[in-house]
Design a protein that fits this description.
It is a single chain. This protein is mainly alpha-helical. The protein has a single domain, classed as Non-ribosomal Peptide Synthetase Peptidyl Carrier Protein, Chain A (Orthogonal Bundle). Helices cover 58% and strands 0% of the residues. The protein contains 5 helices and no strands.
Amino acid sequence: MLQAIRRFVIDNYLFGEDAKFGNEDSFMETGIIDSTGILELVRFVESTYRIKVTDEEFIPDNLDSVTKLVSFIHAKQSTSVQTDRETPVQFAESSLQ
């Protein structure tokens, strides 16, 4: 996951140049990604990792570096798995007959 996100950033924002940026470096502070780029990054993450980023989650603590993004995705995926386990399975009446 970490490498896939790094590759996406390098290919889409650094024009393929494997620039010297660390996984902890802020996308915004270093100028790697601007606010429009963050939207594109979020679309990539949502489609690739099948998660939904809510408006409340759209904050630098979740999205402003490779490391933060990987942690955020792991947290979302584990929450999704827990929610799936806690949601009771409901059957339509016709399937029980």
